[in-house]
């Protein structure tokens, strides 16, 4: 039996954000089969609850753009709590060059033009590993957009998005755009409207390239389970946690 994909997201009280994650799961399901959604915060079901209700092998794909506390701590704990015997955990979605391409698409839709300055707006984290991955994401975006990219944080870390925009204004840059390095709409994305930029790109959302990236992560997980003819041949163990 083909493993179930469990797409694990943060969670938000914004209905549009919840609908976006559901739509992403539906688009992925059209390519690979059963896809279920779980959340690590704000709302349920939790990954442990979904896994307890999953009889077949499962591939957990963390729908996060950097590997901070939720990826390194919450997801492994939830899997352990589920006591599911056959689970593989993939890498988070980001950083990845695919995301940089999608961010540029969103910026163009917001009016960005070649040469305009960019602030990459990330959620922020207290985890140094996540902050390093944000820097890698900014470098990938700079390569695609062919302009320097500054990082601004919506919460937790510094500089803030507003401060990053102001610094570029003070340096004499006439047009500054904010790239939303967020997967779905929610409180964090709403705050970006007050950053003082000339435009704000939409969150990554249900872009065809994002769907393909989730599918690629899932297939990595299937390979790690040792799939052969749709049957799992290797059980999950704590060593599989990432």
UniProtKB/TrEMBL annotation:
Cleaved signal peptide residues: none
Keywords in alphabetical order: Lyase, Metal-binding
Protein known as: Sirohydrochlorin chelatase
Source organism (scientific name): Rhodococcus navarretei
Classification via InterPro entries: CbiX-like, Sirohydro_Cobaltochel/CbiX
Pfam families, per database record: CbiX (PF01903)
């Amino acid at each position: 039996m083909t493993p179930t994909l469990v797409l694990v997201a943060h969670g938000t009280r914004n209905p549009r954000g919840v609908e976006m994650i559901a739509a992403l799961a539906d688009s992925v399901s059209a390519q690979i089969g059963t896809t279920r959604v779980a959340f690590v915060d704000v709302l349920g079901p939790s990954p442990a609850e979904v896994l307890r209700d999953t009889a077949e092998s499962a591939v957990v794909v963390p729908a996060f753009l950097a590997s901070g506390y939720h990826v390194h701590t919450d997801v492994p704990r939830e899997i352990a709590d589920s006591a599911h015997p056959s689970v593989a955990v993939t890498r988070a979605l980001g950083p990845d060059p695919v995301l940089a391409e999608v961010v540029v698409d969103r910026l163009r839709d917001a009016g960005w033009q070649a040469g305009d300055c960019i602030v990459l707006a990330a959620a922020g984290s207290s985890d140094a590993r996540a902050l390093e991955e944000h820097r890698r994401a900014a470098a990938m975006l700079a390569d695609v957009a062919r302009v320097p990219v500054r990082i601004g944080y919506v919460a937790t870390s510094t500089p803030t998005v507003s401060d990053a925009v102001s610094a570029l204004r003070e340096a004499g840059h006439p047009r500054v755009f904010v790239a939303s390095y967020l997967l779905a709409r929610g409180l964090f994305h709403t705050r970006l409207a007050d950053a003082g930029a000339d435009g704000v790109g939409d969150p990554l959302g249900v872009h065809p390239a994002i769907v393909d990236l989730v599918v690629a992560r899932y297939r990595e997980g299937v390979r790690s389970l040792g799939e052969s003819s749709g049957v799992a041949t290797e059980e999950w163990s704590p060593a599989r946690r990432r």
